[in-house]
Design brief:
By secondary structure, the chain is α+β, with helices and mostly antiparallel strands. The chain is 23% helix and 36% strand. It contains 7 helices and 12 strands. A 12-stranded antiparallel β-sheet has the order 1-2-4-5-6-3-9-12-11-10-8-7, covered by helices on one side. Helix 2 (36-49) packs antiparallel against helix 6 (195-206). The longest helix has 14 residues, at 36-49.
Amino acid sequence: MNEALKELLDLLDLEQIELDIFRGRSPEERIQRVFGGQVAAQALVAAGRTAPPDRAVHSLHAYFIRPGDPSIPIVYNVERVRDGRSFTTRRVVAVQHGKAIFTMSASFHIFEEGLEHQATNLPEVPGPETLPTFQDRMYALVGDRPEYRDWLSRPRPVDARYATPLTWEAHRNPELRSAKTNVWFRYDAELPDDPLLHVVLAAYASDFTLVDTVLLAHGMAWGASDIQGASLDHAMWFHRPFRSDDWLLYAQQSPWAGGARGLARGEMFTASGDLVVSVVQEAMIRVTKS
């Protein structure tokens, strides 16, 4: 297990400071705001720790209200909205400087037998072992330029391998523009069997590439285009158990952009083709220069 993954697991082990009140921290990096996937994952940990152990999370709906400050802890206040016979509902508010920066509602459900179908299938893409890592793809684009050396050499908790063009590649070659992104990812270490942990790690990874799918359609890329962006809201549905230390294909598309906003949705599949997670996110995207 690399140090980045150890650090992430430590970040997700929230400190309980009072009944239904938890505290989380951010990694010691020179970033201007907290990564949205981190806040969502930590909020889900807080909600899960107050839910009955026989109930798995099946959905979350979240809003990003203010940028998080990485220099101070985040306090997560959990409201026990309802404990029914089969469903449990929790509301989480993340607070910094006395103000809410993020809110989330999460629902948990006992296992029940019912109707089953799957209308979408695993896209036909190369397997992850045949694809280069994200770092290798970026090295091919930017080389050993000093401004990217530290960023590309930094260990990452997630091994991501793109089966479709990167935004930087589409920025350089308009023929590669597309409103679809397919990314294999996994946490490259054997993780505990805790089902909530695997769901939380999928929530963390889900925020990495959705907005990029909007940018890919326009040949724009962070650091290469004059744009500002931020996640506005995020929703996830967890359909069946899965492991985040096995390869998952994150198939994403952007059906719409306009009004300084962009919509993206994604589906996570196991390597055997089971649909395990659905995701939808809207983001603010502003072009700062013409």
